[in-house]
Amino acid sequence: MDVNTQRSAAEPVVVLDGVRKRYEMGTTVEALAQVSLELERGSFTAVMGPSGSGKSTLLNLVGALDTPTSGHVSLDGRDLGATTERERAAIRGERVGFVFQTFNLMPRLTALENVELPLVFQEWGRAERRERATDLLESVGLGDRLDHRPAELSGGQRQRVGIARALAPEPSLLLADEPTGNVDTATGDRIMGRLQAVHEAGRTILLVTHERRIAEYADRIVHLRDGLIEEVEEL
Amino acid sequence: MDAVEAVRMAVRAVRSHKLRSTLTVIGIVIGIASVITFATFGASLKADVVAEIGDTSASNVYLLTSPDEDRGFAQALQPVFTDHDLAEIRSIDGVRAVIPQGVVPASAVRYQGDTIARSQLTATTTETFEGSEFVEGRAFEPGAQEIVLNRAAAAGFEENVTVGSSLAVVRRSNETVAVTVVGIVNSTQGGLPFGDFGGQPRFYLPADPFYDTTVESPTVGVNQRVYPSATVRTDPARTTAVKVAIRESLETSDAASLVPEGTGVTARTSTDFVAQIEEIIDQLTRFVTGIAVIALIVGAIGIANIMLVSVTERTREIGIMKAIGATNREVMVLFLVESSVLGLLGALIGVPVGTAAGWGAAAYAEIGFQLAPLWFAIAVAVGLGVGIAAGLYPAWTAASVDPIEALRYE
Q: Residue B364 CB: number of other CB atoms within 10 A?
């Protein structure tokens, strides 16, 4: 974490350089054809495109869940293609925070324990973990819901737990995959308000959505189509 | 992730499916409990038999013939120990007494018109009664027409047999010999370690004049009495050394040349007998416990099964954990710890259940109860081992889950 904060602001958090991703599923599917993109530190980028455009693939590559067929993906200057599975797990745990459409909270854990979980894998001590998770949940307005399980929370509340969990390890990058896809419009706007606040606090965000209205919360919109960047729209 | 955290999460997962976990644990409980039951019962049986034999003096060395394969008990008792052999052994330093036992063939014993069938009476010497507990009377004198009965034998007649009563022994030749009862004993020190098992009625006659099985001694060339077995009383401090000396002496004895092919002449202490019996009971226990292990294997399959179901059910959770930084190894450890918790729970419950069942079996068999603490440790280790072994494949499956697929999994 210290390494991140000492990094010069000029260096991009994420660099995609000529990235291709092919899947063999009977026939070869080219999910990403030739994508180059940089995410500046502190930027807020939205990726838009129809389904099958390669949005999810892009997110998985940047989030160290997958490696490219060719080209390079680097995060905080580290080439993800040259990492082992174990190293990628560490990168996911320390540098990336995921916010999912379906929240993906652990159903048996309380809100507090869900936010603590990434820190458990980072070997944080119990007291520090608890303190950090409590602070985060309070900052998203769930200070009175610490011991509630996901099933006892509304969609909006669940997503706020999701955001708190994503922020727990102080990641360099927040990845949000259709974060408003499972909530109503008003709740969606509140969630986007949260993300905007996170961005204003200096965090780098990559948002994937197919809704123009949601994408407009970002600084720029990258339009993907058939695995290629069609247009980069600065807002 | 530290160990405490892993155990906490595993326990939580186990508790979140109470019925399923309970049923799985019952499988292990049955397996472990069966093993413990049989092991405990075996240990109890052993302790009981050993205690029974331990009553007889540990400083006795028993001379007898037995089949060459040093297995089983000496059933093939043949008259091979001549007076010459016994005299040789009597001269060994550390030997206190040599008490031969032989059989006087008979057809019946009669007392005041009451005749009871009796195929054989015991011929022995006065030393048999050294240290014996007499209910009344004394030992017989060598060469006298006297008889000593144990309580079971005395109780066998309708009329009360007491010291001074006159019995008639009907020999195989139909010749009747009158003998006077001079003593009634509780138990004797002579005889084989199992001689008094079950309180069999016994009649003791002096070998002189009643024992008439004789043979020409191959070493001295004269007819002598010859006995199938003898008890050698030794200096308790030197029993083992004396046993070795007796064995040496037996190598050049009449017995060694009289004994038939395939049969050997042996000198054993009661410790040897105990060791032999322990060995046999141990083998039996291992065999039956081995069968109980089958139940344990079935239990292990139950764990493997439920863990596989669990991995499938929690595919999405595995995906989440990986997305937020869990390594494959950590995922694997989580599932392994969970299956170990199931196995360990089964062992911890199975040990007292099995012990209770073993206690019940011992009570039913009317033998003393003996704990088998070593088996407790084994059971707990096995429960843990079974949990780990049964969890290996499911845990590996969990670790190999592709997080991208898993996050999409409904």
A: 9
**A220 burial via Cβ count (<10 Å: 0-12, 13-18, 19+):** middle
B305: Cβ–Cβ under 8 A, 6 or more apart, which residues?
none
ipTM of the complex: 0.91
Distance of CA A235 to the CA centre of its chain: 21
Please answer yes or no on whether A89 and B327 come within 8 Å at the CB atom.
yes
The domain locations on chain A are 41-67+82-234
Mutate one of B324, B327, B332, B410 to test the A interface: name it (highest A CB count within 10 A): B324
Chain A residues touching residue B326 (CB < 8 angstroms): 89, 93, 121
pLDDT at B334: 93
Instruction: Report CB contact under 8 Å: B403, A123.
Output: no
Interchain CB distance below 8 Å, A85 and B12: no
Helices (H), chain A: 2-6, 55-62, 85-94, 111-121, 126-139, 155-167, 185-200, 212-215
DSSP B317-363: HHHHHHHTT--HHHHHHHHHHHHHHHHHHHHHHHHHHHHHHHHHHHH
pLDDT digit string, tens, across residues B219-258: 888 888 999 888 898 888 888 889 899 988 888 888 888 8
Here the tokens at position A67 are: 């490696």
Q: Is the separation of the CB atoms in A119 and A170 below 8 Å? A: no
Distance CA B164, CA B352 (A): 57
Q: Is B180 helix (H, G, I), strand (E, B) or coil?
A: strand
Return the CATH fold of A41-67+82-234. Answer: Rossmann fold (3.40.50)
Q: What pLDDT, on the 0 to 100 scale, is given for residue B57?
A: 61
Residues of chain A with C-beta less than 8 angstroms from the C-beta of B324: 92-93, 98, 117-118, 121, 165
- Nearest Cα to A17, choosing from A53, A61, A64, A65? A61
Low pLDDT (below 50) residues in chain B: 74, 197-198
Whether the bond between A12 and the residue before it is cis, its omega within 30 degrees of 0, is: no
Distance of CA A140 to the CA centre of its chain: 17
| B404 chain-A contacts, CB cut-off 8 A | 60, 65-66
pTM attached to this predicted model: 0.72
Tell me the count of A-B CB pairs closer than 8 A: 62
Coil/strand/helix, residue A222:
strand
Chain B interface disruption, residue of A23, A83, A102, A106, most B CBs within 10 A: A106
